[in-house]
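Allow me, if you will, to draw on your knowledge of protein folds for a short while. The matter concerns a single protein, recorded as an amino acid sequence and a row of C-alpha coordinates. Kindly check, if you would, that the fold set down in the C-alpha coordinates agrees with what the sequence suggests. You will find the record immediately after this paragraph.
***
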Amino acid sequence: MSIEFIGIAHTAAGSEAQGFAERAVDSDYLDRLIHTHEDAGFDRVLVAHSSAMPDGFVTADQILSRTTTLKVLLAHRPGFVAPTIAARSFATLDAFHPGRIALHVITGGDDTDQARDGDLTDKVTRYRRTDEFLDVLRREWESATPFDYDGEFYQVRAGWSSVRPPAGRIPIYFGGASTDAVRVGAKHADVYAFWGEPLAGIAERIAQVRAAAPTGRDPRFSVSLRPIPAETEQAAWDRAAEILELTRERVGEVKKVFGIDGAAQVGSQRLLKYAAEGDVHDKRLWTAIAKATGAAGNSTALVGSYEQVAESLVDYVGVGVSTLLIRGFDPVADARDYGTLIRLVREQTAERQPVSV
Protein backbone atom coordinates (compact mmCIF):
# COMPACT_ATOMS: atom_id res chain seq x y z
CA MET A 1 0.00 0.00 0.00
CA SER A 2 1.08 3.57 -0.60
CA ILE A 3 2.22 5.45 2.52
CA GLU A 4 2.04 9.23 2.64
CA PHE A 5 4.70 11.13 4.59
CA ILE A 6 4.03 14.62 5.90
CA GLY A 7 6.55 16.93 7.53
CA ILE A 8 6.10 20.44 8.90
CA ALA A 9 7.00 23.86 7.52
CA HIS A 10 7.61 26.67 9.98
CA THR A 11 8.42 30.17 8.79
CA ALA A 12 11.24 30.53 11.33
CA ALA A 13 13.64 28.31 13.21
CA GLY A 14 12.64 26.73 16.48
CA SER A 15 11.45 23.73 18.45
CA GLU A 16 10.85 22.64 22.02
CA ALA A 17 14.52 21.68 22.35
CA GLN A 18 16.04 24.58 20.40
CA GLY A 19 13.95 27.51 21.53
CA PHE A 20 12.33 29.87 19.04
CA ALA A 21 13.62 32.70 16.85
CA GLU A 22 12.44 36.22 17.67
CA ARG A 23 11.60 36.90 14.02
CA ALA A 24 8.39 35.13 13.01
CA VAL A 25 9.14 35.04 9.28
CA ASP A 26 12.56 34.10 7.94
CA SER A 27 12.28 33.54 4.21
CA ASP A 28 15.70 31.92 3.86
CA TYR A 29 14.97 29.47 6.68
CA LEU A 30 11.63 28.46 5.14
CA ASP A 31 13.35 27.93 1.80
CA ARG A 32 15.99 25.68 3.36
CA LEU A 33 13.42 23.71 5.36
CA ILE A 34 11.02 22.97 2.51
CA HIS A 35 13.74 21.98 0.05
CA THR A 36 15.17 19.64 2.67
CA HIS A 37 11.76 17.99 2.98
CA GLU A 38 11.39 17.73 -0.78
CA ASP A 39 14.85 16.19 -1.19
CA ALA A 40 14.19 13.70 1.65
CA GLY A 41 11.12 12.29 -0.11
CA PHE A 42 8.27 13.81 1.89
CA ASP A 43 4.92 14.04 0.10
CA ARG A 44 3.60 17.10 1.95
CA VAL A 45 4.41 19.58 4.67
CA LEU A 46 1.89 20.81 7.21
CA VAL A 47 1.38 24.56 7.60
CA ALA A 48 0.05 24.64 11.14
CA HIS A 49 -2.26 27.22 12.73
CA SER A 50 -2.61 29.12 15.97
CA SER A 51 -3.79 32.63 16.81
CA ALA A 52 -0.17 33.84 16.91
CA MET A 53 1.19 32.34 13.68
CA PRO A 54 1.81 34.00 10.28
CA ASP A 55 -0.94 33.77 7.67
CA GLY A 56 -1.26 30.23 6.38
CA PHE A 57 -2.50 30.99 2.87
CA VAL A 58 0.48 33.24 2.16
CA THR A 59 2.87 30.67 3.63
CA ALA A 60 1.33 27.84 1.60
CA ASP A 61 1.63 29.81 -1.63
CA GLN A 62 5.27 30.58 -0.86
CA ILE A 63 6.00 26.89 -0.33
CA LEU A 64 4.19 25.76 -3.46
CA SER A 65 5.85 28.44 -5.58
CA ARG A 66 9.35 27.57 -4.37
CA THR A 67 9.12 23.78 -4.79
CA THR A 68 8.35 21.43 -7.65
CA THR A 69 6.71 18.31 -6.22
CA LEU A 70 6.15 19.04 -2.53
CA LYS A 71 2.48 19.34 -1.53
CA VAL A 72 0.99 21.35 1.33
CA LEU A 73 -1.49 20.45 4.06
CA LEU A 74 -2.86 23.83 5.13
CA ALA A 75 -4.46 24.00 8.57
CA HIS A 76 -7.55 26.20 8.76
CA ARG A 77 -9.89 27.07 11.65
CA PRO A 78 -13.53 27.39 10.64
CA GLY A 79 -15.40 30.36 12.03
CA PHE A 80 -13.22 33.34 11.16
CA VAL A 81 -13.64 33.35 7.37
CA ALA A 82 -16.91 32.66 5.55
CA PRO A 83 -16.89 29.13 4.12
CA THR A 84 -17.56 30.42 0.59
CA ILE A 85 -14.47 32.65 0.82
CA ALA A 86 -12.33 29.88 2.30
CA ALA A 87 -13.50 27.54 -0.47
CA ARG A 88 -12.41 30.02 -3.15
CA SER A 89 -9.07 30.60 -1.42
CA PHE A 90 -8.27 26.89 -1.41
CA ALA A 91 -9.58 26.45 -4.96
CA THR A 92 -7.42 29.34 -6.15
CA LEU A 93 -4.31 27.79 -4.63
CA ASP A 94 -5.26 24.52 -6.32
CA ALA A 95 -5.72 26.28 -9.66
CA PHE A 96 -2.21 27.74 -9.53
CA HIS A 97 -0.67 24.55 -8.06
CA PRO A 98 -2.87 21.69 -9.34
CA GLY A 99 -3.31 18.80 -6.93
CA ARG A 100 -0.80 20.12 -4.38
CA ILE A 101 -3.04 21.67 -1.69
CA ALA A 102 -5.12 19.94 0.98
CA LEU A 103 -7.19 21.32 3.86
CA HIS A 104 -6.53 20.35 7.48
CA VAL A 105 -9.58 21.28 9.57
CA ILE A 106 -8.67 22.43 13.10
CA THR A 107 -11.87 23.33 14.92
CA GLY A 108 -9.99 24.57 17.99
CA GLY A 109 -9.89 22.81 21.34
CA ASP A 110 -8.53 25.70 23.39
CA ASP A 111 -10.96 28.48 24.39
CA THR A 112 -8.17 30.94 25.22
CA ASP A 113 -6.53 30.62 21.82
CA GLN A 114 -9.91 31.05 20.11
CA ALA A 115 -10.63 34.17 22.15
CA ARG A 116 -7.40 35.83 20.97
CA ASP A 117 -9.02 36.06 17.54
CA GLY A 118 -12.37 37.13 18.95
CA ASP A 119 -14.21 33.80 19.05
CA LEU A 120 -15.89 33.32 22.44
CA THR A 121 -18.03 30.29 21.56
CA ASP A 122 -17.61 27.01 23.45
CA LYS A 123 -16.15 23.88 21.87
CA VAL A 124 -19.50 22.12 21.38
CA THR A 125 -20.78 25.12 19.43
CA ARG A 126 -17.59 25.29 17.40
CA TYR A 127 -18.03 21.73 16.18
CA ARG A 128 -21.62 22.41 15.10
CA ARG A 129 -20.27 25.42 13.20
CA THR A 130 -17.49 23.34 11.62
CA ASP A 131 -20.07 20.84 10.38
CA GLU A 132 -21.97 23.60 8.59
CA PHE A 133 -18.76 25.24 7.38
CA LEU A 134 -17.72 22.04 5.61
CA ASP A 135 -21.21 21.54 4.16
CA VAL A 136 -21.04 24.99 2.54
CA LEU A 137 -17.39 24.60 1.53
CA ARG A 138 -18.16 21.45 -0.41
CA ARG A 139 -21.18 23.04 -2.07
CA GLU A 140 -19.00 25.95 -3.23
CA TRP A 141 -16.47 23.51 -4.67
CA GLU A 142 -19.04 21.23 -6.30
CA SER A 143 -21.85 23.47 -7.55
CA ALA A 144 -21.82 24.41 -11.21
CA THR A 145 -25.05 26.35 -10.62
CA PRO A 146 -26.02 28.78 -7.81
CA PHE A 147 -27.08 27.21 -4.50
CA ASP A 148 -28.80 28.34 -1.30
CA TYR A 149 -27.95 27.22 2.21
CA ASP A 150 -29.83 27.78 5.46
CA GLY A 151 -28.12 26.76 8.68
CA GLU A 152 -27.66 27.81 12.28
CA PHE A 153 -24.42 29.65 11.52
CA TYR A 154 -24.35 30.21 7.76
CA GLN A 155 -26.93 31.41 5.28
CA VAL A 156 -26.03 31.62 1.60
CA ARG A 157 -28.12 32.93 -1.28
CA ALA A 158 -27.20 31.96 -4.84
CA GLY A 159 -23.69 30.90 -3.86
CA TRP A 160 -21.44 30.13 -6.82
CA SER A 161 -17.76 30.28 -7.69
CA SER A 162 -15.99 30.54 -11.02
CA VAL A 163 -12.95 28.74 -9.54
CA ARG A 164 -13.63 25.18 -8.48
CA PRO A 165 -11.23 22.23 -8.07
CA PRO A 166 -11.39 19.39 -10.59
CA ALA A 167 -14.11 16.90 -9.68
CA GLY A 168 -15.33 19.40 -7.09
CA ARG A 169 -13.01 18.32 -4.29
CA ILE A 170 -9.80 19.05 -2.43
CA PRO A 171 -8.64 16.48 0.17
CA ILE A 172 -9.93 17.23 3.68
CA TYR A 173 -7.89 16.13 6.70
CA PHE A 174 -9.47 16.47 10.12
CA GLY A 175 -8.12 16.51 13.67
CA GLY A 176 -9.83 16.20 17.04
CA ALA A 177 -10.32 13.63 19.78
CA SER A 178 -13.61 14.61 21.43
CA THR A 179 -16.95 12.93 20.78
CA ASP A 180 -18.08 15.96 18.80
CA ALA A 181 -14.88 15.88 16.76
CA VAL A 182 -15.44 12.24 15.83
CA ARG A 183 -19.05 12.91 14.85
CA VAL A 184 -18.13 15.79 12.52
CA GLY A 185 -14.83 14.40 11.29
CA ALA A 186 -16.27 10.99 10.40
CA LYS A 187 -18.83 12.76 8.25
CA HIS A 188 -16.41 14.98 6.33
CA ALA A 189 -12.80 13.74 6.54
CA ASP A 190 -10.90 12.05 3.75
CA VAL A 191 -8.10 11.55 6.28
CA TYR A 192 -8.67 11.54 10.06
CA ALA A 193 -5.56 12.56 12.00
CA PHE A 194 -4.46 11.34 15.45
CA TRP A 195 -1.59 12.29 17.72
CA GLY A 196 0.95 9.57 18.54
CA GLU A 197 -0.79 7.20 20.93
CA PRO A 198 0.19 3.57 21.57
CA LEU A 199 -0.91 1.12 18.90
CA ALA A 200 -3.92 -0.07 20.91
CA GLY A 201 -5.09 3.52 21.34
CA ILE A 202 -4.81 4.21 17.61
CA ALA A 203 -6.69 1.00 16.80
CA GLU A 204 -9.41 2.05 19.26
CA ARG A 205 -9.70 5.49 17.68
CA ILE A 206 -9.80 4.11 14.12
CA ALA A 207 -12.67 1.82 15.12
CA GLN A 208 -14.46 4.76 16.76
CA VAL A 209 -14.25 6.91 13.62
CA ARG A 210 -15.27 4.07 11.33
CA ALA A 211 -18.29 3.32 13.49
CA ALA A 212 -19.36 6.99 13.29
CA ALA A 213 -18.84 7.35 9.54
CA PRO A 214 -21.99 7.54 7.39
CA THR A 215 -22.70 4.64 5.06
CA GLY A 216 -20.39 4.69 2.07
CA ARG A 217 -17.65 6.77 3.70
CA ASP A 218 -14.25 5.14 4.15
CA PRO A 219 -11.75 7.66 5.57
CA ARG A 220 -8.02 7.02 5.75
CA PHE A 221 -6.03 7.64 8.93
CA SER A 222 -2.94 9.58 9.96
CA VAL A 223 -0.74 9.47 13.04
CA SER A 224 1.67 12.23 14.14
CA LEU A 225 4.97 11.28 15.79
CA ARG A 226 8.38 12.77 16.68
CA PRO A 227 11.02 10.18 15.67
CA ILE A 228 14.43 10.29 17.37
CA PRO A 229 16.55 7.82 15.35
CA ALA A 230 20.29 7.26 15.42
CA GLU A 231 22.83 4.71 14.21
CA THR A 232 22.39 2.69 17.42
CA GLU A 233 19.62 2.39 19.98
CA GLN A 234 21.88 3.72 22.74
CA ALA A 235 22.83 6.77 20.69
CA ALA A 236 19.15 7.46 20.09
CA TRP A 237 18.34 7.29 23.81
CA ASP A 238 21.29 9.55 24.59
CA ARG A 239 19.92 12.12 22.16
CA ALA A 240 16.42 11.71 23.60
CA ALA A 241 17.73 12.47 27.08
CA GLU A 242 19.44 15.61 25.79
CA ILE A 243 16.24 16.75 24.04
CA LEU A 244 14.22 16.20 27.21
CA GLU A 245 16.67 18.23 29.30
CA LEU A 246 16.62 21.11 26.81
CA THR A 247 12.83 20.98 26.60
CA ARG A 248 12.44 21.16 30.37
CA GLU A 249 14.68 24.24 30.40
CA ARG A 250 12.51 25.93 27.78
CA VAL A 251 9.03 24.69 28.71
CA GLY A 252 7.81 28.17 29.64
CA GLU A 253 8.95 29.53 26.29
CA VAL A 254 7.31 26.61 24.48
CA LYS A 255 3.92 27.23 26.11
CA LYS A 256 4.18 30.96 25.41
CA VAL A 257 4.96 30.43 21.72
CA PHE A 258 2.23 27.85 21.15
CA GLY A 259 -0.20 29.73 23.40
CA ILE A 260 -2.28 26.60 23.95
CA ASP A 261 -3.26 24.82 27.15
CA GLY A 262 -2.94 21.11 26.50
CA ALA A 263 -5.13 20.30 29.50
CA ALA A 264 -8.12 21.77 27.65
CA GLN A 265 -7.87 19.37 24.70
CA VAL A 266 -9.10 15.78 24.71
CA GLY A 267 -6.20 14.66 22.50
CA SER A 268 -3.72 16.15 24.95
CA GLN A 269 -5.52 14.54 27.88
CA ARG A 270 -5.15 11.16 26.21
CA LEU A 271 -1.40 11.68 25.70
CA LEU A 272 -0.98 12.76 29.32
CA LYS A 273 -2.88 9.68 30.48
CA TYR A 274 -0.46 7.44 28.60
CA ALA A 275 2.49 9.46 29.94
CA ALA A 276 1.25 8.92 33.51
CA GLU A 277 1.13 5.17 32.87
CA GLY A 278 4.76 5.00 31.77
CA ASP A 279 7.52 6.66 29.78
CA VAL A 280 7.68 3.94 27.10
CA HIS A 281 4.80 2.11 25.40
CA ASP A 282 4.82 -0.66 22.81
CA LYS A 283 8.39 -1.13 21.56
CA ARG A 284 9.66 2.45 21.73
CA LEU A 285 6.89 5.09 21.94
CA TRP A 286 8.34 7.65 24.36
CA THR A 287 5.98 9.99 26.25
CA ALA A 288 8.37 12.07 28.38
CA ILE A 289 8.25 15.14 26.12
CA ALA A 290 4.46 15.11 26.25
CA LYS A 291 4.62 15.01 30.05
CA ALA A 292 7.15 17.86 30.16
CA THR A 293 5.17 20.17 27.87
CA GLY A 294 1.65 19.33 29.02
CA ALA A 295 1.04 17.67 25.64
CA ALA A 296 0.04 20.97 24.06
CA GLY A 297 0.77 19.50 20.64
CA ASN A 298 2.19 16.53 18.79
CA SER A 299 4.75 15.47 21.39
CA THR A 300 5.26 11.68 21.58
CA ALA A 301 8.45 10.23 20.10
CA LEU A 302 9.78 6.98 18.68
CA VAL A 303 13.32 6.32 19.94
CA GLY A 304 15.74 3.77 18.51
CA SER A 305 18.02 2.90 15.63
CA TYR A 306 16.82 3.77 12.12
CA GLU A 307 15.70 0.19 11.57
CA GLN A 308 13.88 0.06 14.94
CA VAL A 309 12.05 3.35 14.39
CA ALA A 310 11.08 2.32 10.85
CA GLU A 311 9.75 -0.97 12.25
CA SER A 312 7.60 0.94 14.76
CA LEU A 313 6.23 3.21 12.02
CA VAL A 314 5.33 0.11 10.03
CA ASP A 315 3.48 -1.21 13.08
CA TYR A 316 1.15 1.81 12.83
CA VAL A 317 0.55 0.95 9.19
CA GLY A 318 -0.36 -2.51 10.41
CA VAL A 319 -3.31 -1.21 12.45
CA GLY A 320 -4.71 0.86 9.56
CA VAL A 321 -2.68 4.08 9.28
CA SER A 322 -1.68 5.23 5.78
CA THR A 323 -0.33 8.74 6.54
CA LEU A 324 2.65 9.33 8.82
CA LEU A 325 3.24 12.90 9.97
CA ILE A 326 6.78 12.99 11.32
CA ARG A 327 8.72 16.00 12.55
CA GLY A 328 11.78 16.38 14.69
CA PHE A 329 13.32 18.54 17.38
CA ASP A 330 15.97 19.95 14.99
CA PRO A 331 13.61 20.65 12.07
CA VAL A 332 16.06 20.97 9.15
CA ALA A 333 18.58 18.32 10.23
CA ASP A 334 15.86 15.87 11.24
CA ALA A 335 13.92 16.35 8.00
CA ARG A 336 17.11 15.47 6.12
CA ASP A 337 17.71 12.50 8.42
CA TYR A 338 14.18 11.18 7.99
CA GLY A 339 14.91 10.38 4.36
CA THR A 340 16.37 7.11 5.65
CA LEU A 341 13.20 6.33 7.62
CA ILE A 342 11.00 7.12 4.61
CA ARG A 343 13.01 4.77 2.42
CA LEU A 344 12.94 1.95 4.97
CA VAL A 345 9.20 2.26 5.65
CA ARG A 346 8.31 2.37 1.97
CA GLU A 347 10.40 -0.71 1.31
CA GLN A 348 8.74 -2.62 4.16
CA THR A 349 5.18 -1.60 3.29
CA ALA A 350 5.35 -2.00 -0.48
CA GLU A 351 3.33 -5.22 -0.37
CA ARG A 352 1.71 -4.91 3.05
CA GLN A 353 -2.02 -4.48 3.70
CA PRO A 354 -3.45 -3.04 6.94
CA VAL A 355 -5.00 -5.44 9.40
CA SER A 356 -8.65 -5.05 10.33
CA VAL A 357 -9.40 -3.30 13.61
